[in-house]
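Curious: why this fold?
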Amino acid sequence: MTRKPIPDPIFTLTTGPVDAYPAVLRGLSRPVLYDYDPAFLAFYESVNDKVQRAFRTSTPPVILQGEPVLALEAAAASLIAKGDVVLNLVSGVYGKGFGYWAARHAGEVLELAVPYNEALDADAVAEILRKRPDIAVVSLCHHDTPSGTVNPAAAIGATVRAAGKLLIVDAVSSFGGMDVLPEAVHADIFITGPNKCLGCPPGLSLVHVSGAAWKKMEANPDAPRDSMLSIVDWRRAHEATQPFPFTPSVSEINALDAALDLYLAEGDEAVWARHAHTAAACRAGILAAGLSLWPAREEIASPTCTAVRLPDGLDEAKLRGAIRDRYGVVVSSGRAETLGKLVRIGHMGPTARPIYSLVAVAAVAGGLQGLGVKGIDIGAGVSAAMRIIDTAAG
């Protein structure tokens, strides 16, 4: 029996992987140079310089050759030494998940958790650091995407720095879409990837490492070396005179170069504003349509993802299927504890354009109405989103 092919969606409004910019797709089609060709070595160094400009950091970053889960696991393996006490901050599924990696290497993992529709508080972090001065490393997920909530990274980072501890920040789905920069949030290891707000396909990790973090990793005998998980091996790989630990993903570097050119040309603050504008219009439309946001308060809702709370008892997978089949729109589900309770609309990279908020609101509201949910007003939702768009435009 021949299975009927499934058509591609018209709009991919997910939280990652996201649709890629056309210039990025063209970048992927560039010639694949030999990694030790002098032209590629110089090119790789220039791309690393562009990442540093985008990070606004005083030290060169590291590009790891795998999507950001690689870098997160590598950070746990490299920075956390045997006997370390780690404070893992949890406001969602991904923050919780980092604790499992930390537990493989630490002597003890403490957890400060809030409900998965809430945000963490810097004062609560300060209190634990006061009670447990033996804490060595703190880990934070800035934007816990399965909840669509954002934590106050700058305030928490300042608290951690004042206590003399090292901080790991997961900014995978926030960097490039909102104001979060490695040194501004006092991160010792700051991890993101180009496959979210920079509009690239998945395949690379972008990592900032502070001087203190380099010192601790290089002194840690258990930090991976000669391994895919090694950060230390890549410390000088950006220098055109240095060898690569292993073959870099040449095509992905080409794509990253194109994405960085777009980001730097538009200007980071303009890019952040574009993401925020799109999310604001989407939230207004969702609320006006008679739906609720998953975050407990709108002020902690992400500019790169709108999480929509679903009515009790609704089959979330059936809703997403209906939206795709009827309107050609793909949105994301929840994860783990939030699975089945919400759907997520991504505003990242190419889809962080206000017009996409109209598509998202109409599709989600229309899908719910089509499944028999009462009290949905599609017209009111689209009109409310349009008012936000027009107000900003005017």
In short: The longest strand covers residues 135-141.
